[in-house]
Every structure is written in structure tokens, then in C-alpha cells.
Amino acid sequence: MNTPRLRFKDKNEQVFPAWQQENLLNLSESGFTNGVFNDPTKVGSGYKLVNVLDMYIDSTIDEKRLSLVELSESEFKKNKVEYGDIFFTRSSLVKEGIAYSNIYLGHCQDVTFDGHLIRMRPRKDLLNSVLANYLLRTSAARKQLVARGKTATMTTIGQSDIADVLITFPSLSEQTKIANFLTEVDEKISQLSQKCELLAQYKKGVMQQIFSQELRFKDEDGLDFPEWEEKKLGAVTQIVGGGTPDTTVPEYWHGEIQWFTPTELKTKYLAKSVRTITQAGFKNSSAKMLPTGTLLFSSRATIGDISISLNECATNQGFQSFIVNEFNNNEFLYYWITHNKKSFIEKASGSTFLEISKKEIEKLTIQYPTHTEQTKIANFLTALDDKITHTKTQLSAAKQYKQGLLQQMFV
């Protein structure tokens, strides 16, 4: 039996006893049980119901998202959920999803569980429930569970299959230390996830206020800026299409010119393209050279994705890009287009795929502030984006840290 690389110590700084191995049946209070029949005609009121949708989430089972089902009192009592109960999915469309587990750590007294789940109630004298849920998600446990799944139309698993799964676990004292530590890490991840969501909601709300002019900025003297002007989009920016060199001519490709396709519009800024074209490829296509700072806008199939180029570049024909003149702020226009994406989609047409033409884009109207107010708006939203990006980076680092811990703690 392998030994974990990362071990905890007791209060005397001594390593805890060696880990032991046992099957899940012997680690459960009273074996395994299936849940209640989820009658579609009796949903919407009654007891809170843990179902399959509550299994495949990063967090533990969330009471706030539980559905409701009507049951008799006797059926509820037989299937009442308690703190620390662990559930497994009985079936899955994909084999790797079989017997996926999650744990209930709430204290509500009106929670039951769906018949498509199997419940295990860990023995409190042998297993810390929180740690047990981590153990059941390790690669060693998952391999055993997936191997026991029976595949026909769907992959299914029974109580006896789960009962035979072996897990390796430490003493109860070390379990408690590990569980408490990992719970703190999970709480940090949860806080960062919530912060990301709140920042995204705040950004959406503040953009609505800015572009509807409910929220206005002041100049350096604390005075109001002039009223916004209504203009056609074609009057404030030059709109340029793209083109593709002949893909059968090798001399046209792998050159020094950045050449973007719509699938690359995933971030606010773009520096390097996946593919490049040569000067010969550029001259023998309808592509146009776009200056640094151009707004690369997808106008075909997927409409409204947008990025700002950090270098001179060209694009394929799936773009109508915006070259902003010196009197306007390209970052302001980036945020305006992002906020008004729906307006572009509504003007699109086509039978094989949707596309918005240069002519239709030019006719769209935009409420335009002065260049100074544009800059203030752009700087404010950019700072907010930076904060969102920083929080996402923290969240990603926390998840990687947790993953590294799990790999060292569990064998």
C-alpha cells in the first residue's frame, strides 16, 4: 500500500499511524440505500430533494438550489437526509460520470434524496464524512467505481458494486486535521468564485448605467461633460473586411503578417495569431492591413465577438473590423460594442449562416461622448476588468494549489 507524500502530525509533532484500507460496506453505518421516486406531478412543493444535478458541482450539495417534491411522512422519514450523508449517481450517459459522489453538510430537517442516487452514511467511529467525500473523488477510488459500471444504453452501477470499493484512509485524528485544512482551502475557493460572480454582475450593471447615461462622469473641475451626440457608427470609425489567401499555395503561409480568424477572439487584447501569412499571401488576397489598436469584430456565424489588436495584422473574411480615428477612443468603442452585441445580431441575415454586412454596421447609431469622457469611461471599465482578471487568476491559483495538495495527500 502506497504512502502519501504529505502527512500531518499530532500535537506532539509525531506522525500519525499508517493508513489502512477497507471496503465501503464496512465503513458505512447500515449499507447503501436508494432514494425516493421523483414523481413529476408532485414537484414544486414539499420536501427538499437532493438529485443528480446536485452531484456534478465543485462545492458540496447546496441547500439553496434543491428542488421540492411531495412525499408521505412515512416515506420521508425512511429517506431523510442527515449531515454527512454521501450520495452516488446510479447512472450516467458517459462511463466516467458513473457513481460520482457529493456530500450533504447542511442542517435542514426536511431534506430527502432522489431514487437515481445511492446513499452511504459513513461510520462516525471510522470515517470523517468530509474527508470521505475527498477520498471518493481520488483517482484510485474513481478507477474502481468506473470499472464497476455496467454499460448498455447508459452506464449504471448498483449498491453491491459500490460496497466492494476499497479506500485507503488515515486514523480518525489525522482525518479531522486533513478535512479541516481542505475545508479552509475550499472556503477560500468559494469566496473567490463568489467574488468573480459579483464583479461580473457589477460590471454588467455599471455598463448599463454608463451607456444609458444614468451614470455620468465629471471633468477635472468637477463639472458635467457636454451632452452625448448621436452618430452613425460609420461616421466615427472606418469599417474594414478581411480575406483569405489561397490555402493550396504554400508560399502564402507561415510569414511575418499576423492573420486572425474569429475563433481566436477570446480575450480583450490579441497580439499573436495562430496562423500567419506572407507578403505574397497578403497581396494575393482581399485582406487589408489593420493598424495597431484596431477592433477585430466577428461578423459571420458567431456575431459580435471582439478583441483589440496589439500589432498590425490582417483577418479572414469573417470580420468587419473597426479602425478608430485619433478623435475617438478605441477602448470606449470596444466596451460599447460589447454592451450592444445584441443590436449587431438583430441586423444579421442569412440562410446558411448569419452575417452582418458592412453597410448594416455603418447604419447603426451610437450615443457618443467627448473624447475626454470616452477616456474616463474606458479607464474605469479597464480598471474593473483588471480587477476581474486578477480575481480569476487568484481563483485559478487556489484551485491548482488544492489539486497539488490532493495529489500529495491521497494515494
Characterise this structure.
By secondary structure, the chain is an alpha+beta fold. It has 3 domains: 20-169, DNA methylase specificity domains (Adenine-n6-DNA-methyltransferase TaqI, Chain A, domain 2, Alpha-Beta Complex); 172-211 and 372-411, Helix Hairpins (Orthogonal Bundle), CATH 1.10.287.1120; 229-368, DNA methylase specificity domains (Adenine-n6-DNA-methyltransferase TaqI, Chain A, domain 2, Alpha-Beta Complex), CATH 3.90.220. The protein contains 11 helices and 22 strands. The protein has a 4-stranded antiparallel beta sheet with strand order 2-9-5-7. The longest helix is centred in the middle third of the chain and has 40 residues, at 172-211. The N and C termini lie close together (9 Å).
In short:
With 411 residues, the chain is of the alpha+beta class.
Fraction in helix: 25-40%
Number of helical regions: 11
Low-confidence stretches: none
CATH superfamily of the largest domain: DNA methylase specificity domains
Q: Tags for this entry?
A:
single chain; 411 residues; alpha+beta; Helix Hairpins; Adenine-n6-DNA-methyltransferase TaqI, Chain A, domain 2; 4-stranded antiparallel β-sheet; 3-stranded mixed β-sheet; 22 strands
Walk me through the topology.
Layout: E1 20-23, E2 28-34, E3 43-50, E4 67-69, H1 73-78, E5 86-89, E6 91-92, E7 101-103, E8 111-113, E9 117-122, H2 129-135, H3 139-147, E10 150-151, E11 155-156, H4 159-163, E12 166-169, H5 172-211, E13 229-232, H6 233-236, E14 237-241, E15 253-260, E16 269-270, E17 275-277, H7 279-283, E18 295-300, E19 302-309, E20 314-315, E21 320-324, H8 330-339, H9 341-346, H10 358-363, E22 365-368, H11 371-409
Parallel strand pairs: 3-8, 15-20, 16-19
Antiparallel strand pairs: 1-12, 2-9, 3-4, 5-7, 5-9, 6-11, 10-11, 13-22, 14-21, 15-17, 18-19
Helix pairs in contact: 5-11, 8-11
